């Protein structure tokens, strides 16, 4: 397990980065103090909308602020790209595009709609980006005190145990999540006609926990149209390091700087499952 030393991916600043377990401890402490402590105790005035249907709570804001302070202290000179800060100042995303400075991507509460309604399905997510590349990622479930973390090239860990995804189930046993949201009616209709070919479908309303469930073998794939960096950067690294496979339906790779794309993205527990789903569930010829 990669503990006890700094990262070794970038220049002088990144070489002073803390060990991934130190970051994990910091995320755990902040998430429990700022998010879990407020769970199921919010007043009406502590929940609002950033846009119609897109909720934000006082816990989102305070968790993000606390993480910015802690992570900034762990890696001086780094830039913070938090979901709530970007909602107020979209230009913050430019730091990811330039790649000049190490960036922390922060999703203080992934699954805010669940959190705001008292449903115990939410996570705190953080990724470290250097030179435009995700080099470390963390997903923390504070309700169950379950931490997933990964360092590029160092493997993925869930609850302290290394995850190496095993043989992929047959198509009929693949359980997963679809997040199309009505954006692609033709693709949705095609998938609906083929639902009987695959296993159970779930929607957790939190990508973070969906990635964790893929790591522990309870889910086998998830399809996403929206790919905001705070929702997917940590999970993409974790899944890849565990032996999973992710790409858009057109075959193009995940890119942290692309939030909307005409081709949805499938994250799967293996490349074979990815190709099988593309052909059998979404009706596409595997000729790319």
Short structural description:
It contains 10 helices and 13 strands. The protein is of the alpha+beta class and 288 residues long.
| DSSP E strands, number | 13
User: How do the helices and strands follow one another from N- to C-terminus?
Assistant: HHEEHEHHEHEEEEEEHHEHEEH
Q: With helices defined by DSSP (H or I, 4 residues minimum), what is the helix count?
A: 10
**CATH class categorisation of the largest domain:** Alpha Beta
Specify the helix fraction band: 25-40%
CATH superfamily of the largest domain: Fructose-1,6-Bisphosphatase, subunit A, domain 1
CATH architecture of the largest domain: 2-Layer Sandwich
Domains, number: 2
Kindly name the structural category: alpha+beta
The stretches of 5 or more residues where confidence is low (pLDDT under 50) are 1-15
Mean pLDDT: 91
Our measurement of the CA-to-CA distance between the termini, rounded to an integer number of angstroms, reads: 36 Å
Radius of gyration of CA atoms, rounded to a whole number: 18 Å
Main sheet attributes: strand count, strand direction, barrel closure: 7 strands, mixed
Strand order of the largest sheet: 3-4-5-6-7-8-9
Characterize the overall form. Answer: globular
């Amino acid at each position: 397990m990669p503990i006890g030393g700094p990262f070794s991916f970038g220049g002088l600043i990144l070489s002073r980065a803390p060990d991934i377990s130190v970051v994990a401890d910091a995320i755990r402490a902040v998430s429990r103090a700022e998010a879990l402590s407020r769970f199921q105790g919010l007043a009406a005035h502590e929940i609002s909308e950033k846009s119609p249907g897109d909720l934000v709570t006082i816990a989102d804001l305070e968790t993000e602020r606390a993480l910015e302070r802690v992570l900034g202290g762990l890696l001086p000179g780094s830039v913070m790209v938090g979901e709530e800060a970007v909602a107020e100042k979209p230009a913050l995303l430019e730091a990811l595009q330039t790649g000049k400075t190490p960036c922390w991507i922060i999703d203080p509460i992934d699954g805010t709609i669940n959190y705001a309604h008292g449903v115990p399905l939410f996570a705190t997510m953080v990724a470290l980006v250097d030179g435009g590349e995700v080099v470390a990622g963390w997903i923390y479930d504070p309700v169950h005190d379950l931490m997933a973390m990964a360092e590029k090239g160092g493997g993925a860990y869930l609850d302290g145990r290394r995850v190496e995804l095993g043989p992929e189930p047959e198509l009929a046993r693949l359980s997963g999540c679809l997040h199309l949201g009505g954006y692609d009616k033709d693709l949705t209709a095609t998938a609906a006609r083929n639902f009987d070919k695959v296993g159970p479908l779930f929607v957790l309303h939190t990508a973070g926990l969906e990635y964790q469930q893929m790591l522990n073998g309870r889910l086998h794939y998830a399809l996403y149209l929206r790919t905001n960096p705070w929702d997917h950067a940590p999970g993409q690294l974790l899944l890849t390091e565990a032996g999973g496979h992710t790409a858009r339906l057109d075959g193009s790779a995940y890119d942290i700087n692309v939030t909307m794309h005409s081709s949805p993205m499938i994250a799967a527990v293996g490349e074979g499952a990815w190709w099988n789903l593309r052909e059998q569930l979404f009706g596409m010829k595997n000729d790319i």
